[in-house]
Amino acid sequence: MAITTCIFDAYGTLFDVSAAARAAAAEPGNEALAETWPKLAGDWRHKQLQYTWLRAITGAHTDFWEVTKSGLDWAMEAADLTDPELRERLLALYWELAAFPEVPKMLGDLKNAEKQTAILSNGSPDMLAGAVESAGIGDYLDDVLSVESVGVFKPHRSVYDMVGKRFGCAPDGVLFVSSNGWDAAAATGYGFTTAWVNRAGEPVDRLPWVPQHILPDLTTIPDLAKSL
């Protein structure tokens, strides 16, 4: 079946999750962060994801903003950073994450090809709205879908169910794109055609399924969607 709908994870896929720490590290007065920001950004992201998984399997759901704050608190303690003003600055910058450079053109090309496009994210609706507005990509998206509609984080099957319910499409008509290998793998198991945006060149996760396409960035997504 031809691809009619292209669905994107948000954080790390369309939006650069390291941008908040990188931007704060460049500001005057944040010299301590400047020395450690890559590690802090990595720890922040890893804990953020770990907390979504743990909450999903224990049934202790909360919104993504809470796990984002919890992940930052862990990362700051690990880096021996205790400044509450720095914490507030990092959290504020998370609402203004930059999109990766290729994102606007890629989404525009998909719309020109008459593909339906949407975000499917762990993010809460207000966080996603802020990121979409800050990146200026709202005109390229048909919808922004948040797990808050089902009350559980990815990779729970009910999250992927949201795509068919919203767009009325079968799984094999969907190209699902994520920078998280585990997310792309789970979406493969669900029945989507999948692309893993592996910017860091990481190994493939050892899971029952694997992403069907592995790309270094999002540039060729329109060509891939057209070819399928």
Distance between the termini: 8 Å
> Which CATH-level-2 architecture of the largest domain?
3-Layer(aba) Sandwich
Arrangement of strands in the largest sheet: 3-2-1-4-5-6
Number of strands: 6
The coarse silhouette is globular
How many strands, what sense, and barrel or not for the largest sheet?
Answer: 6 strands, parallel
CATH topology of the largest domain: Rossmann fold
Main attributes of the structure:
DNA polymerase, domain 1; 228 residues; Rossmann fold; globular; 9 helices; 2 domains; alpha/beta; 6-stranded parallel β-sheet
Please give a quick description of this structure.
With 228 residues, the protein is an alpha/beta fold. Helices cover 48% and strands 12% of the residues.
SSE topology sketch:
Layout: E1 5-8, H1 19-25, H2 31-58, H3 64-78, H4 84-94, H5 103-112, E2 116-121, H6 125-135, E3 143-146, H7 157-167, E4 174-178, H8 181-190, E5 193-197, E6 213-215, H9 221-227
Parallel strand pairs: 1-2, 1-4, 2-3, 4-5, 5-6
Fold and architecture overview:
With 228 residues, the protein is an alpha/beta fold. The chain has two domains: 5-15 and 98-227, HAD superfamily/HAD-like (Rossmann fold); 19-94, DNA polymerase, domain 1 (Orthogonal Bundle), CATH 1.10.150. Helices cover 48% and strands 12% of the residues. It is built from nine helices and six strands; from the N terminus they run E-H-H-H-H-H-E-H-E-H-E-H-E-E-H. The protein has helices at residues 19-25, 31-58, 64-78, 84-94, 103-112, 125-135, 157-167, 181-190, 221-227; strands at 5-8, 116-121, 143-146, 174-178, 193-197, 213-215. The chain has a six-stranded parallel beta sheet, sandwiched between helices. Strand 2, helix 6 and strand 3 (143-146) form a beta-alpha-beta unit. It is globular, with a radius of gyration of 17 Å. The termini are close together. The mean pLDDT is 97.
